[in-house]
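Journal club prep, notes for RB
We'll compare a predicted complex against what the paper describes. Inputs for the 2'-deoxyinosine case:
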Amino acid sequence: MTSQTPDIPTADQIRRAPKVLLHDHLDGGLRPGTIIDLADATGYTSLPEREPDKLGIWFREAADSGSLERYLETFAHTCAVMQTREALVRVAAECAEDLAEDGVVYAEVRYAPEQHLEKGLTLEEVVEAVNEGFRLGERRARESGHRIRVGALLTAMRHAARALEIAELANRYRDNGVVGFDIAGAEAGFPPTRHLDAFEYLKRENNHFTIHAGEAFGLPSIWQALQWCGADRLGHGVRIIDDIQVAEDGTVTLGRLAAYVRDKRVPLELCPTSNLQTGAAASYAEHPIGLLRSLHFRATVNTDNRLMSGTSMSREFELLTETFGYTLDDMQWFTVNAMKSAFIPFDERLAMISDVIKPGYAELKSEWLFRQTVTTSGSVPKTP
Ligand SMILES: O=c1[nH]cnc2c1ncn2[C@H]1C[C@H](O)[C@@H](CO)O1
Ligand SMILES: [Zn+2]
């Protein structure tokens, strides 16, 4: 018998639990072996390692710098090998397969189309190749007994000046694989208000967007993303913690912005391991997700960049259960939060919650009940 505390899920249960992922970068999740294959196929000779295990370690270590700017430099290698239709189809298909294998049932995966034009693809060709890859990966996942749905978010880079063009692209493909828009890249010095025209356009089109904010830069960035730009969700948003005071006797006081975020149920796309790497949090135990969960913010758990963080959704949940003693109920809470916050239509979100997520967790919880009964009675109860 395992000595695990009842209700704390095992690693195997965490992997089998249905999970929802809202913040994952396509160019931050390649398999190391695929990067090497694609580099060979496209003549890219600047990879720092030629052996998959070593290359995986290189990405993790290079991303471990404590600075978002240095973390972002590692993407030069992944973007370099994602410049052809074939490469994009393969990377997107493998992304969907890897997530499905990890128990992710719904994912919104983002990438910046403007970073994949070096070999002559048009923005439209990039979007169509990635869509084709996601559909292929979903089909392959189904064939191997998994179920996943993947929507794309189109990202504009905040240091560049193509946000309106990318927003228009997202709007053109909104009924064809693309579910929303995002801005990413170095945060300090590049406030989201630089791209107001793109956000105002998307609002006029009744479209959805999230903004990377409150990761490398604090409250002003979150405030602008919400109150100037009108973001539906916050990419990270972890620094909202700067607007929450916890007194020695445990009394919690929320500032106006933190109160707004909680009252309005603004989804926080939290990415614990990524935050440790870029210096947004000092340790898992000190990561604000513990406090935000207990204060009932609409917190969600995400991977950000599986390659650079050497992580997966299951791994993030394992680390959280080890650190905070989270149970299957906590996992379900994060997962339902994420599904409620997805950019697909409301009825489809509800159907995922009632047909996939709740039954999945109910089944896992019944394993605990079953195991408890076996331990206490010493015999296996007969099924009725
Ligand atoms: O955590 C992040 N913060 C800001 N930008 C990021 C993060 N992770 C990835 N990016 C950037 C680098 C990628 O090339 C780009 C599009 O996915 O988004
Ligand atoms: Zn990100």
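Talking point for the session: The chain has a mean pLDDT of 94.
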